[in-house]
Amino acid sequence: MTHVGVLGATGAVGQRLIQLLDPHPEFEIACLTASDDSAGRSYRDAAKWRIETPIPDDVADLDVRETDPAAIPDDIDLLFSSLPSSVGERVEPDLCEAGYVVSSNSSNARMADDVPLTIPELNHDHLDLLKVQRDERGWDGALVKNPNCSTITAVPTLAALDTFGLETAHVATLQAVSGGGYSGVTSMEIIDNVLPHIGGEEEKIETESRKLLGNFDGAELDHHDADVAASCNRVPTLDGHLENVWAETSEAITAEDAATAMREAPSLDLHSSPDQFIEVFEEPDRPQPRLDRMVGDGMGVAAGGLRETSNGVQYNCLAHNTLRGAAGASVLNGELLVEQGWV
Ligand SMILES: NC(=O)C1=CN([C@@H]2O[C@H](COP(=O)(O)OP(=O)(O)OC[C@H]3O[C@@H](n4cnc5c(N)ncnc54)[C@H](OP(=O)(O)O)[C@@H]3O)[C@@H](O)[C@H]2O)C=CC1
Ligand SMILES: N[C@@H](CC(=O)OP(=O)(O)O)C(=O)O
């Protein structure tokens, strides 16, 4: 068993990590951290558990520790990080320097040249950037990131379309409230409403997509040159980001070509990777957040509403933002790190 720790374990993503890691056949939760306010309390007491499955008893009895390298036991093999990015920026490099391998969901350092940003089914080869990272930073540990939840929703479909030469992608998002964390948006702000701004989100989709779709030659990563533009909206759904995408390709493409390319997007043999990576619906009114966010046990991507435009295709896509878009993405990266021998 690989002994793992969860940083930011009491939060929205931290709780999802525990939900996924507790029954995991390869990982054993051995350490939990959160803010100083929670440190020293039992997890049951510190975490306001809001997941639909019960809080696991063995985890509930663990003590929450400070988020500090000195507080992490030496026998932890792998850390999952779901800290606020300002905290991740400060703490994650210290942990890597202290020798820990960190699979992080926080947005800090996602765009750093020597930090792999991975969706294993798409760009598992980018993990070899860790050789560059260790050479440059002198770390015994390692830092790997998963992308922003809205980015993860669209990029698998864009990667499938790239077989036809992706040139442009315009994305409009309808993002669930859980994306903002437990204290993100208040009910007075979001009920009977749509918020047409999510700070920093558009730039993340635009830049992270190009890094994910880029080419790694073993030394340097070339970002894809597609023109990606995004517009982000918060809507009153609980989980599941729905996105409208307009993609243009250099080669002619039909809606049927696009559906086939998406359906054929390869999956991996990792524990958390879904059997079918992208599920394409024929019904024009699918995917929908309430009906389809659990495709592939919450680790799949759903697409539908495909139709041709003058230079490409238009469609809708959806993924569960705290599973495939956050906690599940970190766990999958953890499985890849183990499989490739970094842990
Ligand atoms: N929610 C989502 O869908 C997604 C979230 N993310 C990212 O994941 C990260 C976590 O998000 P989320 O779970 O929603 O956030 P929450 O606010 O729900 O949880 C934050 C966690 O970090 C801990 N924390 C807060 N301040 C500190 C500190 N100073 N030192 C140590 N620990 C601290 C909290 O502990 P305590 O309980 O003690 O305060 C809590 O465990 C963020 O970077 C977010 O941007 C990414 C993709 C999707
Ligand atoms: N901003 C996303 C969630 C998030 O926290 O993203 P990031 O991991 O890039 O900080 C949302 O609101 O749905």
TrEMBL record:
Record: active site: C149 (acyl-thioester intermediate), H241 (proton acceptor)
Top EC class for this record: oxidoreductase
InterPro entries documented for this protein: ASADH-related, Asp_semi-ald_DH_pep-lack, NAD(P)-bd_dom_sf, Semialdehyde_DH_NAD-bd, Semialdhyde_DH_dimer_dom
Gene Ontology BP annotations: methionine biosynthetic process; threonine biosynthetic process
GO molecular function, one term: NADP binding
Keyword Oxidoreductase attached: yes
Highest taxon in the source lineage: Archaea
CDD domains linked: ASADH_C_arch_fung_like (cd18130), ScASADH_like_N (cd02315)
Location of the Semialdehyde dehydrogenase NAD-binding domain: 3-130
Signal peptide: none
EC number: 1.2.1.11
One Pfam family here: Semialdhyde_dh
Alphabetized UniProt keyword annotations: NADP, Oxidoreductase
Keyword Ligase recorded: no
Entry's family note: Belongs to the aspartate-semialdehyde dehydrogenase family.
NCBIfam families tied to this protein: asd_EA, PRK08664.1
Protein name (record): Aspartate-semialdehyde dehydrogenase
